[in-house]
């Protein structure tokens, strides 16, 4: 669930063993009511803080300014970089051709809701020969292109439009998607570039309607328009690429190694969903090993029943928050109807005492992680179900945070454990005011029959590892584990005969294993700068990679953290140059090597590349 796919600037070459430096920022319990990271500054040319002269020969008439780039969790932060906001595709081409002649690079920037250094490297200096393109200011147009007799439709949208805006636009016409990321503040270009996904597989007996797929958003693309090199003309031009063209496979999930400015997405007839929350199932039961006694409430059982699940497991707690979404045309009497997205205000904007506790963690009270996990769980339970019993029976420290005033405020919002409405209103639930945590991310591809096996393997290792760290007085995780389940890419979903799959998608099927049809996504969230976090993430990563074999294929989630050393992400040369490419090559067929070759051919002068991407994509 992420944005801002492309990395730029002159970053450290991770293949040489150098880690990307991490930036420690202070948490602030702001008046908005949450612990949020100090955000970016904006400086226009001519202001006292301007860092350098404008790039020589830059095309006249464009909105050019200097701005600090900072990503979602504040771990990647630059000096003030030259940034422009093109008003049209032609202005994009003008900037790229100027950069080609001047020896600069161009990096597309969306909503900056991402973790990986795919846009710019942390610490990129103002003197770097890089210009950021802010697509979100003007390149946001969208239109309904056609409505088919089978109930599907096509939406043409420019890359800077937010996913929230696109889903609202499609929803107003009666269309939607099956699997959407939880945040709405993702640019469409960024979401497609990293293969953004939600959580959905077909429920038992469910037949998806035309235009509805269970893979990534990239798999819904029917055509796209990208900036490519034209050798005959000796310049970069715009080219529209259809889904059946071989080059499209590399552009559908390009990691920022290309610049896509417009796309057409196939959407299906919208469905009303019922979202139910459960907070009473022990982790040992939900994540039980296969073969558990009849009646055990397992994650795989909920997947079979509804097709759409997410488990949120707060650190040092034993009862996850499980959400399920079921296609439900009419509102059940017990369900609360919702008419807009973001229906968990207790999560969007933390109560002030809880924000203070988060701030104390960032200030160095890392051993408070078990308390913070318990508070987060109880906060969700009270807000969703109205049950305050566990709060009243808890220790003094918990009651000091979840005071009577806080409980009264939570209950005043109304209970939200059973919601019903249009799909986008239930699939979008993460606002920018949500606590900004860092995250690792992996997709474990398995047969659907092995879904519970994968979940139980991970849960047992995570629980044991967390206890081992705590026994040494280390508390690397103060956030939550998030587990989602999706299908793999099925090109037929886009409705284009001969459609090719997204070659670099984590969800690209293995040609040699048609029985592998499911991806289980594992993310562990924690506040940035938590001591021992990178070492813990490395232990998790090495464990997951050890599962890779006949029963599982493990791929990284591009927008999140991966390739960990003991002190940094995106820095382990073995993972970057061996494990990641090998996971994409697994099973044969067109994939990693073909995608790299196409991207290099479409941008042979590497105007749209960076040191990090050059090290990764080779």
TrEMBL record:
Protein family according to the UniProt entry: Belongs to the FAD-binding oxidoreductase/transferase type 4 family.
Annotated source species: Actinacidiphila bryophytorum
Protein name, per record: FAD binding domain-containing protein
Domain of life per record: Bacteria
Keyword Flavoprotein set for record: yes
Co-factor(s): FAD
Origin organism lineage: Bacteria, Bacillati, Actinomycetota, Actinomycetes, Kitasatosporales
One GO molecular-function entry: oxidoreductase activity
Keywords attached to this entry: FAD, Flavoprotein, Oxidoreductase
GO biological process: respiratory electron transport chain
Domain FAD-binding PCMH-type, chain residue ranges per copy: 75-286
Gene3D superfamilies named in the record: 3.30.465.10, FAD-linked oxidases, C-terminal domain, Uridine Diphospho-n-acetylenolpyruvylglucosamine Reductase, domain 2, Vanillyl-alcohol Oxidase, Chain A, domain 4
């Amino acid at each position: 669930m992420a944005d801002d796919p492309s990395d730029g600037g002159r970053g450290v070459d991770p293949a040489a063993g150098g880690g990307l430096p991490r930036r420690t920022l202070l948490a602030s319990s702001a008046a908005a009511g949450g612990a949020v990271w100090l955000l970016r500054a904006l400086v226009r040319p001519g202001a006292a803080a301007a860092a350098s002269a404008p790039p020589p020969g830059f095309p006249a008439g464009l909105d050019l300014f200097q701005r600090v780039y900072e990503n979602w969790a504040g771990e990647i932060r630059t000096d003030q970089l030259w940034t422009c906001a093109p008003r049209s595709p032609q202005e994009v081409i003008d900037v790229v051709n100027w950069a080609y002649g001047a020896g600069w690079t161009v990096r597309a920037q969306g909503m900056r809701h991402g973790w990986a250094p795919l846009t710019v490297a942390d610490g990129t200096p103002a003197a770097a020969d890089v210009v950021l393109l802010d697509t979100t200011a003007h390149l946001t147009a969208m239109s309904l292109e056609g409505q088919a007799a089978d109930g599907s439709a096509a939406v043409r949208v420019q890359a800077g439009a937010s996913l929230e805006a696109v889903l609202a636009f499609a929803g107003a016409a009666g269309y939607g998607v099956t699997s959407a990321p939880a945040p709405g503040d993702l640019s469409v270009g960024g979401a497609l570039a990293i293969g953004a996904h939600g959580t959905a597989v077909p429920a038992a007996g469910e037949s998806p309607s035309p235009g509805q797929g269970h893979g990534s958003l990239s798999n819904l693309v029917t055509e796209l328009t990208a900036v490519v090199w034209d050798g005959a003309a000796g310049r970069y031009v715009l080219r529209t690429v259809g889904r059946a063209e071989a080059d499209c496979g590399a552009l559908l999930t390009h990691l920022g190694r290309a610049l896509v400015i417009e796309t057409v997405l196939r959407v299906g007839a919208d469905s009303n969903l019922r979202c139910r929350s459960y907070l009473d199932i022990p982790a040992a039961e939900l994540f039980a090993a296969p073969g558990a006694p009849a009646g055990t409430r397992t994650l795989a059982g909920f997947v079979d029943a509804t097709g759409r699940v997410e488990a949120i497991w707060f650190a040092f707690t034993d009862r996850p928050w499980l959400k399920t979404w079921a296609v439900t045309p009419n509102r059940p009497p017990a369900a609360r109807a919702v008419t807009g997205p973001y229906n968990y205000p207790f999560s969007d904007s933390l109560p002030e005492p809880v924000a203070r506790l988060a701030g104390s963690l960032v200030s160095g009270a890392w051993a408070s992680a078990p308390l913070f996990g318990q508070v987060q769980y109880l906060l969700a339970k009270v807000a969703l179900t109205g049950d305050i019993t566990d709060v009243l029976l808890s220790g003094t420290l918990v009651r000091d945070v979840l005071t009577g005033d806080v409980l009264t405020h939570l209950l005043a919002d109304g209970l939200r454990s059973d919601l019903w409405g249009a799909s986008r209103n239930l699939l979008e639930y993460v606002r920018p005011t949500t606590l900004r945590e860092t995250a690792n991310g992996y997709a474990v591809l398995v047969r659907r029959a092995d879904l519970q096996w994968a979940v139980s393997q991970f849960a047992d290792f995570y629980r044991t590892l967390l206890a081992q760290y705590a026994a040494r007085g280390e508390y690397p995780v103060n956030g939550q584990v998030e587990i989602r389940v999706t299908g793999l890419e099925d090109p037929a979903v886009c409705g284009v005969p001969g459609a090719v799959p997204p070659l670099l998608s984590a969800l690209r099927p293995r040609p040699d294993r048609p029985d592998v049809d499911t991806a289980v996504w594992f993310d562990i969230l924690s506040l940035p700068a938590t001591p021992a976090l990178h070492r813990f993430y490395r232990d998790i990563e090495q464990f997951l990679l050890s599962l890779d074999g006949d029963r599982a294929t493990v791929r990284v989630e591009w927008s999140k953290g991966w390739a960990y050393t003991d002190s940094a992400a995106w820095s382990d040369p073995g993972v970057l140059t061996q494990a990641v490419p090998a996971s994409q090559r697994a099973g044969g067929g067109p994939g990693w090597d073909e995608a790299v070759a196409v991207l290099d051919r479409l941008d042979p002068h590497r105007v749209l590349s960076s040191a990090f991407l050059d090290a990764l994509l080779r």
